[in-house]
What we know:
By secondary structure, the protein is α+β, with helices and mostly antiparallel strands. It has helices at 19-22, 47-54, 61-71, 99-108; strands at residues 33-40, 79-87, 90-96. It has a three-stranded antiparallel β-sheet with strand order 1-2-3, with helices on one face. Strand 2 and strand 3 form a beta hairpin. Helix 2 crosses helix 3. The mean pLDDT is 76.
Amino acid sequence: ARGAHCRIPAASPSSARTRSDAMAPKFDANETKIVTLRQYGGEQAPSSVLAPKVGPLGMSPKKVGDDIVKGTSTWKGIRVTVRLTIQNRAAKVDVEPNATSLVIKQLKE
């Protein structure tokens, strides 16, 4: 039979993906999410950095950036790790200083 060797087997019903499988799960507003990033204290992070991290959680990168600036004002100009705890579309900013940032901060005083 001519062309019989190039037949593609039909997909089994179990391997077929439904539309609901392909979509991302709905974000639960009461769930707590933690996002960490490194940035200079007291400076606005570029929206291009924040958008992929907080956008899917339903938050504005600009608003989160402003919160980070307020939360890191004592670490101005020093690169620190920022932990964002996001719950109910509100971000709580925590600064996690590492040894280097602590030393630089002490030397500046």
